[in-house]
Amino acid sequence: MTTFILNSSIAVFEAEVLGSDKLVLVELLRSGCRITPSGAPAVQRLAVEYAGKLKVVQLCCDKNETLLAHYEIRNAASFLFVRNGEILAVKDATTAAQLRLLAQNWLEESFFPVMPKSQALMPRTISFIGEEEQKIRCLNRLSDAKLGSDNQPSSCIEGRKNLLTTKLGMPVTLSAVIDTLCWLLQAEGEVSASEQAHALIDAIPVGVDLGAVPSAFARWLLYDRNWGIARYYSEQLQPLLAKIKTLHDRKSSDSAADQNEWRVLSQQVLNFNAGNGPHEENQKNLADILQKITIPLAQIDSNLMARLCGGAAYLAGELDKQTWWTESEQGEMDGLYKELYETRYQKLGDSPTEKDKDRLANWEIEALDLEIAWERQKRQLHASLWERWDAWGKQQALLYARFNRAAIEYLLRQFSRAPRLHIS
């Protein structure tokens, strides 16, 4: 049903639009302001298909200039989306497909799970919901945000991770990849993490389907010959890994593996871990990952994706580490740091809680001063150990940078190959 408003006061507008318990699509009419039951078929179809969930209002702009000025609605606007008294979007002339996708996105955020079946729906993984201005907004927000260790790019872009798919068309698993790559740079003190995040988002074309990118990247993390996690599995685990890869290959070639095969294989991995759990720490972690990846690649969630991404970089470092840093040296360094923590506890006690901000701030300053003095002393007493530690740290930073470059190059190729949705 469509409501036509010819001449409205602010009170009427607030009652009909801002006060509605439904999502409201306001079509702004000009040039005579005639009601158009058949003149805007895309809007009328939305009104019919989302009946009970979406309210469509046609508002005569020529008769409501004061009203539009009051809500700072620009003259060129053609559509408004309003929900719970909030104007969500002000759109200029837009395509039927874009209008439909916006309605779908905000209806889903409002917890309306039922989508109309009369027409094929635009995939929710279309980048930036097919709009150039959405990409510009996203990049501006990321540029204005302060990117720190707890301020991940995906949070800066939209404020909440669960909006990434509904508003940006970015699968949450893909955002986990970008977050992890930037975290690796931040962890090594690099200042380019924010620039990298901006460049990655900027490289995503507008209007392409990103749905298959996370699965492709998960495959790269697992099986790439230079960086893949599969390179680190022991001979004991290789047979199970080969079976998993066979099913992953079958899935990627569009011949879906029978669910029973996944269940049987998952049980085999579970039995192996229970009866033969490797004692070496890295192999324990790898055996656990093996159990987690005994699923179709498309079912990998954001937590596992972040673990695979960080794990691939970490394991590459562990393989290279023995040349630069030995287990005995690590044990010696662990002993020194244990001494630091014991001294800090004796002098400062436990860290205050976050509720006591002033005490916590003072405690952190004193703890930092203590650690600086301690490290200065230990560097003099254990000069050769610290030289080796510094050399390994530099090597690790270089290795993470190489991993980042390889991962980014792969992602950029996937972005360029993503199928484009032709919106009309």
Automatic annotation (TrEMBL):
Pfam families: Thioredoxin
InterPro entries: Thioredoxin-like_sf (IPR036249), Thioredoxin_domain (IPR013766)
Domain Thioredoxin: 11-98
The protein's name: Thioredoxin family protein
Organism: Collimonas pratensis
